[in-house]
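Supplementary Methods. Inverse-folding protocol.

Structures were first reduced to a discrete structure-token string of length 172. This string, shown here, constituted the complete conditioning input.
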């Protein structure tokens, strides 16, 4: 694989969470969103030569995703449509704008996660695993659900402030 192909593959790989979020925000169905994302990935790979290096990869790939969402929508009965076409178009534009800025937000969050202590990181992991309810965590940690909720609130606030600080530093 040559260097350009490796860079393109890196762009595609790093865009997956953002593309999925974009598609999901328009479709509202987890499984359909994954299916559409796979179709988008195939199209992006087929059109790799059309991508102009140095331009916004997310803007380019979300426009491809938008057309896949429209195609999926047309293939389904009208009763299944959550949104009117005009509203879908408006939301798609807003989400595309948001998608083009989210990698920096995600990068900031990942860096902020590195700076919280191990116990806080462990609590977050436990909370967001499949059975990580506050009640289950309270039982596991031999404390109250209120105490767990308070700890999580403090960690989230700390992360939010850290992300905001990092983003504001990037803008200056």
């Amino acid at each position: 694989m040559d260097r350009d192909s490796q860079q393109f593959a890196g762009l595609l790989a790093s865009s997956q969470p953002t593309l999925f979020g974009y598609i999901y925000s328009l479709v509202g169905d987890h499984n359909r969103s994954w299916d559409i994302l796979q179709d988008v990935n195939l199209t992006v790979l087929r059109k790799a030569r059309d991508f102009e290096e140095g331009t916004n990869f997310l803007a380019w790939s979300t426009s491809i995703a938008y057309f896949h969402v429209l195609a999926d929508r047309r293939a389904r009965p009208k009763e299944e449509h959550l949104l009117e076409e005009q509203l879908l178009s408006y939301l798609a534009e807003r989400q595309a704008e948001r998608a083009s800025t989210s990698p920096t937000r995600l990068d900031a969050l990942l860096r902020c996660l590195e700076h919280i202590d191990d116990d806080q990181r462990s609590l977050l992991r436990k909370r967001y695993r499949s059975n990580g309810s506050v009640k289950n965590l309270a039982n596991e940690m031999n404390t109250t659900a209120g105490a767990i909720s308070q700890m999580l609130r403090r960690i989230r606030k700390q992360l939010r402030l850290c992300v905001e600080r990092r983003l504001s530093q990037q803008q200056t």
